[in-house]
Amino acid sequence: MPNRFPARLPRLTPLRTVTGPTDHVVIVGAGLGGLSAAMRLAAAGRAVTVLERGGLPGGRAGRLDLTSSEGTYRFDPGPIVLTMPGLVEDCFDALGERMADWITLKPIDPLYRAFYADGSRLDVHAEVPAMAAEIERVIGAEEAQGYLRYVDFVSRLYRYEMKDFIDRNYDLFNVVTPDLARLAALGGFGRLAPRVQRFLKDPRTERVFSFQAMYAGLSPYDALAIYGVISYMDCVAGVFVPEGGIHTLPAAMAAAAERHGVRFRYNTEVARVELAGDRATAVITAGGERVACDAVVLNPDLPVAYRDLLGVQPRGVRRLRYSPSCYLLLAGSSATYDHITHHNIHFGDSWRGVFADLIDHRRLMSDPSILVTNTTRGDASLAPAGKQIYYVLFPTPNLDAKIDWRREGPRYRDEVLRVLEERGYSGFGEAIEVEYDLTPLNWRAMGLERGTPFAAAHTLTQTGPFRPGNRWGQNVVFAGSGTRPGVGVPPVLISGRLAAERITGPDRRYRSKAVTW
Predict the structure, then answer these.
(1) Mean pLDDT computed over 480-503
(2) SS3 of 443, please?
(3) 3-class SS string, 66-88
(4) How confident is the model at residue 378 (pLDDT cuts 50, 70, 90)?
C-alpha cells in the first residue's frame, strides 16, 4: 500500500523518531495500543506483522465464553467502561475506513447509578442539564449550581490538557507549552479532592466525580487535579457500549487492519527481542523462530517488556510505584435486579478509608466501594435467553501486599457474595449458573507487573513527561498503559498513535476528534 501521508510534518520542535529503515515493523501484542499502532503504521505504508500470544486480539480486552446447560455466556474480562468514541473513530479514519461500517457504539444513559450508604442514589447523566436537574432533585439547587461550575472547570482542564499533556509525544526539549502553564494557573497541579470540594459540597457528588482517581491508581486526596479530566471523559463526554460487548472493538480494529495488509499471527508467544547493541534486529518467538524487522513496537506491560523481552531494567522502571489491583467476579446468572442500571457504583460509608486500606495499609477494604456492571442490560444477546451477566469489581491491593491469594481467593469470593447481598443483590450466589474470577495472581499470569491491570500509578513523578517514555534504543517503541499517556482505554488508544509517530513522524490529521470529543 502506498504511503498516503508524509513521513515528517513541519512543527516547531522536531519529534525524535527511530533511526534507520522502518519498512517492516513487528508489533508484539494485539492489545488496544498495539492495534492502534498497527492501523496507523499500515496507513503510513509500513509492512506490519503483529505477534499475539493469545488466540484473539484485544489483550486485556479479550473475550471469555462460559457455557451452561442453558447456553453460552460471553464475558468481557477486561475494561468495561468505554469513553471518547472519537479516539476509536480516529483509528479507522487513519485507514480511510468508517467506524460505523465495523462496529456500532451505543450511548448509555444513565452513565452510572450511584448508591450510597444512607440509602440514597444518584443517576449520572452526560447531558449537563439532565445531570443538574438530578442533583437538584436528590441534593438541592445550590449543589446543582456547584456542579455547573465544576463542569466548566473540568471542560477547561480537558481543553488545555488533551492537546499538550495527553495527546503528544514528549522529548527533553518540548515539555513546556503554553497550555501547561494554563493548566498550572487553573490549579491542575494541586490535589484533586480539595479542588472538587471547591465546587461540590455534598459528599455524594464529591465521590461520584472523584472516584475516577482510582483509575489512575491514587486516592483523590493524593491525585493531581488534572485527573479530573477522567470525570470529564465519562461523566460529561459520555459512556458507550459496543454491540456484542467490549471485545468487538479490538476484533473490529484487527479486521480493518488486516484488510489493509497487517499480518496477524495468533498463538505466537515472543521470547525476546534480538539486539545488536541497542538496535532491534529481530523478534524471537518461544518456538525459536526469528522474525526479522526494521523496528519493534512492544505492547506488553512496559516493565515486563523491558525485563523479559529486552533484558534491561532502567533504574526509573525498577523504581515505579504501582496502582492497586482488583478482584473480578464474572457471573452468568438467572437473577434480575430491577433497581440497577448498566453500570452501578456502590459506595460504602467510609471513603478515605477505602484508599487508606488499599494504598496506605495494603489490605483488603473493610468497607468496600464496588462496581457492578450488568452487561446484558445493554445487550441481551451476550447470554442465553432470559439470563444475565454481572461484572463485579472489588479493588484490592496489588501483589506488593502480603496477601496469599491462593488461600485468600476462595474466601474472598464468599466475602464478595456477602457484600453483594448486603448491597441489595438478594440471592446473588444461589442464582449463579457459570462464573469465573480473577485475582491479582491471574493478572500477573497475564503478564501484568505486580498483578495489577492498572499499571504504574499516576503519581506526580510518574505522570505526563515523567511517565516512562515510549522510545528505547534506536528502533524500539512502547505502547500501552505503562507508557505515556497512561491508563484507560482512551489513553491506550492514544499511546498506539504516539508509538506509530515515533516510527513514521507526526501526523496531525487525527488529533481534531481527540481534542474536541
Answers:
(1) 95
(2) helix
(3) EEECCEEEEECCCCCCEECHHHH
(4) confident
Radius of gyration of the chain (CA): 22
Supply the angle between the helices 228-235 and 141-161 in degrees, to the nearest 10: 110
What ranges do the domains of the chain cover?
A: 24-61+86-105+243-321+470-516, 137-237, 323-454
Q: Is the pTM of this model over 0.90?
A: yes
Query: Which of the four pLDDT bands, split at 50, 70 and 90, describes residue 331?
Result: very high
Largest CA distance in the chain: 67
23 burial via Cβ count (<10 Å: 0-12, 13-18, 19+): exposed
| Residue 470 near residue 305 (C-beta atoms within 8 A) | no
Query: Residues 20, 473: contact at Cβ < 8 Å?
Result: no
Fold classification of 24-61+86-105+243-321+470-516 is FAD/NAD(P)-binding domain (3.50.50)
Are 24-61+86-105+243-321+470-516 and 323-454 the same fold in CATH? no
Question: Coil, strand or helix: which one is 436?
Answer: strand
- Concatenated DSSP letters for 176-202? --HHHHHHHHHTTTSBHHHHHHTT--S
Task: State whether residue 240 is helix, strand or coil.
Answer: strand
Would you state the pLDDT for residue 8? 31
pLDDT tens sequence across 255-292: 999 999 999 999 999 999 999 999 999 999 999 999 99
> Running DSSP on this structure, what letter comes out for residue 118?
T
Identity of the amino acid at 259: R
Phi and psi (nearest 5°) for 280? -75, 130
> Which of 90, 34, 60, 12 lies closest to 500, judged by CA?
34
Above 80 in pLDDT, residue 439? yes
Q: Which residue has the cell 484473539?
A: 56
User: How many C-beta atoms surround the C-beta of residue 162 within 10 A?
Assistant: 24
pLDDT bin (cut points 50, 70, 90) of residue 1 is very low
Residues with Cβ within 8 Å of 354's Cβ and at least 6 positions away in sequence, in order, are 348, 365, 367, 368, 369, 395
According to the CATH classification, is domain 323-454 in 3.30.519?
yes
Nearest Cα residue to 340 out of 249, 230, 215, 428 = 428
Alpha-carbon gap, residue 283 to 59, rounded angstroms: 19
Question: Does residue 165 have a pLDDT over 90?
Answer: no
User: From the CB of residue 516, how many other CB atoms can be counted at a distance below 10 Å?
Assistant: 10
Tell me the mean pLDDT in the region 303-324: 96
Q: Residues of 292-303 as b/e, b for ≥16 C-beta within 10 angstroms?
A: ebbbbbbbbbbb
* Exposure b/e, 274-284, CB count within 10 A at least 16 = b: bbeeebbebbe
Task: Determine contact, residues 147/199, Cβ cutoff 8 Å.
Answer: yes
CA distance 501 to 504: 5
Residues in the chain: 517
